[in-house]
Structures are given as structure tokens and as C-alpha cells.
């Protein structure tokens, strides 16, 4: 399928928006020790910046998506990206932990709304039958966030300080907002279905259950990946950035492979994503040394990169007539998973039991793989 140059630019701009959104959301992961030291709190307290962010998104996304349901989709994307800019500027100058929390809440309020529209915007650009491919294209920004966004943020934080790293993210978000305004045309909203209909939709329920299980597992470990790297691979400081880079590169490769097959083999790609997470975590638990552990952490990025693509594509398949609000319900499950995973991992870290986070991740991967195997929601549309 040939894609017009203007459409390519628009997809690239949406991908850049995904990049900056994911980078901003996960800054506490990349800057964990620097934020803890700079704000005078513990590592687990910085992990709560992820938990609180996710809880705000989970609570606010459905009413906010309903409130903005008649907005032009491009306008929605621009406003929510503007909130990312404001959030990171405030975070960069935050004098204490309380202000840092408030700054994170600003971006969290718009986060769910942005992710409820970006996949459907991409699908509208490519046309019918291309939902999985469109999602994979723009979600490449996610993998690039882990390839460059988090690794560069980590390097900036350790070299020049975390405040400069956060300001750089704010600047990238501002530029991305301008690019979308120029390259993406107006997209009038599609009339939404009622939220109650979506909430009880049995076709989407297995997707939401899978989301909750696999995301809880993934973020139980990923939120504290810098601590995991230090324990299992024995790398700290700038050396961690190099492993972040390799992790992101593997994620980009995994996204390319999943994007090629998601529309034709949805169940197979979903199983690679869910069971793949479990395999990587089990390998990390039994690793005999830092080389195997480092390899497992890099390989982990492959299935991790597919989580959003596989799940969002499933939502678009089962909710073709109501993509925005259906995505909002899915985002609730996703954000609850982030909050629960970060909390479980933080509990393990706080009690000196970091392997508990890895065990939760392995369990979440296997449990979600069972749901995928048994659910028709991941069967091929054909």
C-alpha cells in the first residue's frame, strides 16, 4: 500500500507525539536516583510519581474523553501535548517533592485523552483495514522513547543534572506540538457511543483483562529497571544509559516485526508479547551472571514494545464504531496496571526484596498469555 507524502508526515508527527508522551511519563524511571537525591526523598517515593500519575489517568480518562468527545481530534492532541510542556517546565523548577507531584498531575490529566485519540487518528490517516499497521507506525515513537528518550534523559541527568533533562523534554514537546499543528489536518470527531455500552461490552472485556495483567507485570519490574540493572548486571551511573540504549534498540526491532504481522496474526503476536515478557523475567531470575542478565533485560524490550500495539489494535478491532471511548476504557485498565505494578515493585524494593518485582512481572506475563490463548478478541478478523 502506497502512502502519500503528506500522510507520512502526519504519521511521523503523531509518532513524535507518542515519543514525547512516553518519555515524559517515564522520566521518574530514567532519573530515579537523581530525582530522589534532588528532592530529598527515597527511591520508592519517586516510584510513587509513576503510581500517582497512573491513578490520575485511570480516574480522569473516561469523563475527560466524554467531555472532549466533540472536539476536533487534532485540537485534542495539541491541548494534551501542551499540558506535557507545562508539566515538565514546572517539574524542572520544582523546589520540593510536593511541587513535583503537582507538576506530574498536570500531564497526567491530559495523558489518557491523548492516548484515547492518537491510534484512531493514525487509523483514519491510513484508512480501513490498516488499524494495526497504523498503530505500529505511530507507536514506533514509544520504542524510540526507550531507545533515545529515556537513555538520553538518563545521560543528561547523570551528566548535567535532572532539571536540565526535564527542560529538554519540555522543549521537545513544544516543538512536536507545533509540528502536529502544521502537518496534521483537521479531524472532526466521530459521534461517540455511550460509556455504559462500552463498559459492559463483552468483546472488549478480555482485552482489558489482558491489559491489566500484562501491564501490571511489566511495570512492576520496569519502574525500577535502574535498580534491577544495578543488582543483576552491576551497572550504575552513565553505564546504565548504554544498556537503556540497547534495550530501546531491541524494542524498536520488536516493534517492526510485530507491526508486520499484527493485522494478519493478532493472536500469535499477542502471545509473543505476553509469554515473551514471562520468559525474559524468568531468565533474569535464574541468570548465572551479569552477561545473561543484561541479555534478558535487552530482550525484554522486544515483547514490551508490542504491548501497546497488540492491545490497542485489539481494541480497534472489537470496537470499530466507538474507538475513542473504547480506547478510554482500555486506558483505564492500562493505567491501573501501571499503578498496581509500580506499587507492587515499590513494596518489594522498599523491603529489600527486589526479585519480587521480577516475579510479579513473570506471573503477569504468563497469566495474560492464558487469556490471549483462550479469547476470541485476539483471533484474526478473517
UniProtKB/TrEMBL annotation:
CDD domains in UniProt: MFS_NepI_like
GO molecular function annotations of the record: transmembrane transporter activity
This protein's name: Uncharacterized MFS-type transporter
A single GO cellular-component term on record: plasma membrane
Location(s), subcellular: Cell membrane
Domain Major facilitator superfamily (MFS) profile positions: 10-382
Keywords: Cell membrane, Membrane, Transmembrane, Transmembrane helix
Keyword Membrane: yes
Transmembrane segments: 48-68, 75-95, 101-122, 134-156, 162-184, 205-229, 241-258, 270-291, 297-316, 328-347, 353-373
Membrane topology note: Multi-pass membrane protein
Pfam family, any one: MFS_1
Amino acid at each position: 500500500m502506497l502512502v502519500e507524502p503528506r500522510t507520512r508526515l502526519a504519521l511521523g508527527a503523531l509518532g513524535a507525539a507518542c515519543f514525547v508522551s512516553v518519555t515524559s511519563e517515564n522520566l521518574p524511571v530514567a532519573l530515579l536516583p537523581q530525582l530522589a537525591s534532588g528532592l530529598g526523598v527515597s527511591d520508592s517515593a519517586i516510584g510513587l510519581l509513576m503510581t500517582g500519575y497512573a491513578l490520575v489517568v485511570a480516574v480522569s480518562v473516561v469523563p475527560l474523553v466524554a467531555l472532549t468527545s466533540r472536539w476536533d481530534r487534532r485540537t485534542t492532541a495539541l491541548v494534551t501535548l501542551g499540558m506535557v510542556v507545562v508539566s515538565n517546565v514546572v517539574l524542572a523548577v520544582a523546589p520540593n517533592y510536593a511541587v513535583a507531584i503537582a507538576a506530574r498531575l498536570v500531564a497526567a490529566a491530559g495523558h489518557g485523552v491523548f492516548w484515547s485519540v492518537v491510534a484512531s487518528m493514525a487509523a483514519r490517516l491510513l484508512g480501513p483495514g490498516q488499524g494495526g499497521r497504523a498503530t505500529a507506525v505511530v507507536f514506533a515513537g514509544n520504542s524510540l522513547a526507550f531507545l533515545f528518550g529515556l537513555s538520553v534523559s538518563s545521560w543528561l541527568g547523570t551528566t548535567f543534572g535532572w532539571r536540565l533533562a526535564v527542560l529538554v523534554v519540555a522543549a521537545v514537546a513544544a516543538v512536536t506540538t507545533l509540528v502536529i499543528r502544521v502537518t496534521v489536518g483537521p479531524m472532526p470527531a466521530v459521534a461517540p457511543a455511550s460509556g455504559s455500552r462500552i463498559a459492559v461490552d463483552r468483546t472488549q472485556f478480555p482485552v482489558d483483562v489482558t491489559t491489566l495483567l500484562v501491564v501490571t507485570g511489566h511495570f512492576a519490574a520496569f519502574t525500577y529497571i535502574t535498580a534491577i540493572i544495578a543488582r543483576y548486571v552491576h551497572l550504575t551511573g552513565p553505564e546504565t544509559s548504554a544498556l537503556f540504549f540497547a534495550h530501546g534498540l531491541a524494542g524498536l526491532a520488536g516493534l517492526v516485526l510485530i507491526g508486520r504481522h499484527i493485522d494478519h496474526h493478532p493472536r500469535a503476536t499477542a502471545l509473543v508479547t505476553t509469554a515473551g515478557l514471562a520468559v525474559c523475567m524468568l531468565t533474569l531470575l535464574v541468570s548465572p551472571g551479569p552477561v545473561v542478565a543484561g541479555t534478558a533485560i535487552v530482550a525484554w524490550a522486544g515483547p514490551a514494545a508490542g504491548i501497546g500495539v497488540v492491545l490497542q489494535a485489539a481494541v480497534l478491532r472489537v470496537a470499530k464504531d466507538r474507538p475513542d471511548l473504547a480506547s478510554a476504557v482500555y486506558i483505564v485498565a492500562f493505567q491501573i496496571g501501571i499503578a498496581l505494578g509500580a506499587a507492587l515493585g515499590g513494596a518489594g524494593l522498599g523491603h529489600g526484596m527486589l526479585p519480587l518485582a521480577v516475579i510479579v512481572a513473570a506471573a503477569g506475563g504468563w497469566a495474560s498469555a492464558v487469556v490471549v490463548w483462550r479469547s476470541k478478541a485476539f483471533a484474526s478478523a478473517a
